[in-house]
Design goal:
With about 100 residues, the protein is an alpha+beta fold. The protein has one domain (about 10-85): Alpha-Beta Complex (Aspartate Aminotransferase, domain 1). Helices cover about 20% and strands about 30% of the residues. The protein contains two helices and six strands, in the order αββββαββ. It has helices at about 10-20, 55-60; strands at about 25-30, 30-35, 40-45, 50-55, 70, 80-85. Strands 1-2-3-4-6-5 form a six-stranded antiparallel β-sheet, covered by helices on one side. β3 (about 40-45) and β4 (about 50-55) form a beta hairpin. The radius of gyration is 13 Å and the shape is globular.
């Protein structure tokens, strides 16, 4: 099985931002770093981006940005209500996450 490829800087920034929030825990999704509330996955790093779960209306709006693509981990069909935000380096201090 191939090794998971992701930007470790994205993981570091998201760990610092998310893990202090009560109820958020780190874990894995398909071998990639991910963050959960309870058993519910809401974000993960994947290749050069970050996959996040957002309301469907917002996902359609975000997909109009050149840095946002449908989230299709490992070539699978798009995960509903998920988008992938792609940046070469994390935007420290300017993270935007949506919880629902």
């Amino acid at each position: 099985m191939p090794t998971a490829s992701y930007n470790p800087n994205h993981k570091d920034v998201l760990d610092a931002l998310l893990l202090p929030i009560p109820g958020v825990r780190a874990g894995k999704m398909f071998g990639y770093p991910a963050w959960f509330v309870g058993r519910k996955l809401f974000a993960c790093v994947y290749e050069d981006g970050v996959g996040i779960r957002v309301p469907e209306e917002l996902s359609q709006e975000l997909l109009s940005s050149p840095d946002v693509t449908p989230f299709r981990p490992m070539g699978k069909p798009r995960m509903g209500n998920w988008v992938q935000i792609n940046h070469g380096e994390p935007l420290r201090g300017r993270c935007l996450l949506f919880f629902y």
